[in-house]
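Subgroup meeting minutes
Present: P.N., E.W., G.H.
Scribe: E.W.

1. P.N. recapped why we're keeping a running log of single-chain structure predictions: easier to compare across weeks, and new members can see raw inputs and outputs side by side.
2. G.H. added today's entry (884 aa).
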Amino acid sequence: MRLKIVLFLIAFVSRSSLAIGFFKPFNVSYDGRALLLDGQRRILISAGIHYPRAAPEMWPDLVAKTKENGVDVVQSYVFWNGHEPVRGQYNFEGQFDIVKFVKLVGLSGLYLHLRIGPYVCAEWNFGGFPVWLRDIPGIKFRTDNGPFKVEMERFVKKIIGLMKQEMLFSWQGGPIILLQIENEYGNIEDSYGKGGKEYVKWAARMALGQDAGVPWVMCRQNDAPENVIDTCNAYYCDGYKPNSKEKPIFWTEDWDGWYASWGGRLPHRPVRDLAFAVARFFERGGSFQNYYMFFGGTNFGRTSGGPFYTTSYDYDAPIDEYGLLRQPRWGHLKNLHEALRLCEPALVSVDVPDYVLLGIKQEAHVYREPVDNKITDSGFLGNGSVCSAFLANMDERHSVSVKFLGQTFHLPPWSVSILPDCKNVAFNTAKVQSQTSLKLLDRLSSRFSTMTNFSFKSTVSWISESWQAFHEPIGVWSPENFTMHGVLEHLNITKDSSDYLWYITRIYISDEDILHWKVTGVRPSLTIDRVRDVVRVFVNGNLAGNATGHWAPVNLHIDLKQGENELAIVSQTMGLQNYGAFLEKDGAGLRGQINLKGLKGGVQNLLNSPWTYQVGLKGEFLKIYDLESQGSVNWSSTLPPDTSTASFTWYKATFSAPDGADPVAIDLGSMGKGQAWVNGKSIGRYWTIVAPKHGCPSHCDYRGAYNERKCLWNCGRPTQRWYHVPRSWLQESSNLLVLFEEIGGNPLGISIMRHATDTICATTSESDYPPLHMWQHPDIVSGDISITEVGPELDIFCDYGQIISSIEFASYGNPQGSCQQFSEGNCHASKSFSVVSEACRGKNRCTISVSNEKFGEDPCPGVVKTLAVEAKCMSASDVNIAYM
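Output recorded in log:
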């Protein structure tokens, strides 16, 4: 109940009443070991959350769940094109209300790392640059170029000034402790030669000249100037060293997942490997680590970059796209963070840890004070005030037992054991003790293909009636068009105001051409040297064919009639390039020669023909997706006779929101490709393109170095089927859903579904480590760490607002199998089910001691026993329905 009250208060605090002075003002500096907050070294864990990738109503809950996980810092980019869509016209409202977001972070007691850039990459459209930046005369992005530097500095000053005005820096009592200028520039710096090197120096001077009062970083910038910290972005950063011993080791992007591309498989990084990477980083001297992403969210509207990056930016993050905890990922990292927090007094007291070789691929790093007490061959450790150790096994295949300080420790392959007191193991990266949570949508995904069927009652709403359609005109639809000779660059015309640009010309076909085709059997064809990203070719209003690719060639047979023919080519962007050098030169549309082949007179070059240009769609211009604009076109209640092939068609229908407060997803698996809006808000692009059938392993092995191609899943299925509709966008009934469908699909197959945890499972053994909450928690300057003598516990919980409605399986003994496939072994305590049911049923969370005393018997003396539980979660409203 306490959490509910806190979230309620945060959610309804007005922007004006968000109090300044979240902290007592403090200074931030750094030395060669760590960031210093008010002169005190800190070991900091950070969580990446991008404010525009969630509805503002979600922010309080996201921040609360992040803090509960044991995180210290929230990290976010600043999105220039969202904040200044038109030069000199700023947007700090809604999803771009950065001040409100930063204040919410501070209100929670967390710090903030603001990555201004202003280039962000982030799989975000144009890397965060506003498209109008391309039109400034003489501009060259991200190099020693006067026009660019003027614009960049102007925006950086705007953001720094806004943060100062709102009293959001640490020295003002605010949460901002760290800033970033530029982003991964070292990856492309050589492309700019001397201009690149001068630009790096200028960017640092300019940033430092803002007098922000907190340190600045440059990620992936090994030539970062003296007063700017260079940092690591990678899957592993435990071997990273900054370019000066005066700078601490920072990991600004720990890639705990990866983004998805349309038509691709979905990447997954095992949490055991992720925890291993984080533990190794802190083991080897790291002091600041950020998960990219902790919450990935959604690319609403046309914000996804690429090209061809999906609307979902879930990123396999600990908090999923809808704001729900992803278990066991979230729980395993929470336990890791708790263990690291226990080690913090020792970690900050030592500049360089003691290194101990434990085996060929095994080693220890020991942090203790005072540093002059050495570990001897006999295992003697000096009587330091604090001591913490990390024992690592880098062997990818074999478990080993090692001797450390007179004790024997068992290390699974590819794992790190954390000993906060140099004696007892509090956490091992390969041993997951947190629960598994399976959600309603998971039941329809390939990742959990073995799951049983379930009832859709109160879960799915089908939109099968009330559909209406409107056919988008092909070609010219308004007087706002122009004609000129030659083929113009797409972005120069659209300014990215729409994905779509029409190129229209006329072709005359003579009687001789028709006869030539009949005699020779040749069919005319249209060839274009290069197109990006999608083109659709219409001849006389009929779709002739499509082409997709990143500057790919087109060779398409077309049917022409005698006389005048209208050739209409619609060029479509699928997110502007967000990474690489010379972004200002990267455009869209058609390039190279455009030829009509197969005519009697040979090849006809269309490049210099008169072309008419029409920007966007009529439905877009009239905003027929808005509630107030429904009368601007004539909607038909009769759907196309064959919706599967009906291209360039708008559809609309109304629906009621699913019961309860759970997040909402819309299933567009029956559609083709297009864009979708709910109550006038764009939920993004959709596309049911299917991933390759092969390349997804049946088992994902966490052991060994990870890359985004290692653990793929979702083969043979649409890359994305479910699309997030924030609950705050919905009303109880009469919600308007509008789709623009490009290639054909069946709107009758669309459904709205609640996204919530359905099943939770956990196993805990007598031999597992004691719960971390039993450890005595020291502050930074405290001495010894102790642990309360207590046995392991099994802890399970449902989503907020749910209760444990039933226990599906419980066995204390030697249960077999895994979640949803548990079975009793030959050792089973008879009261297992009743004990667990009494402890858990009807509660949101329960904790059960894994002991003979708890279950009233020792079902198999001399055998290490395990408790396995599977339970169902249900919202309060569903419980009421079920028991009526």
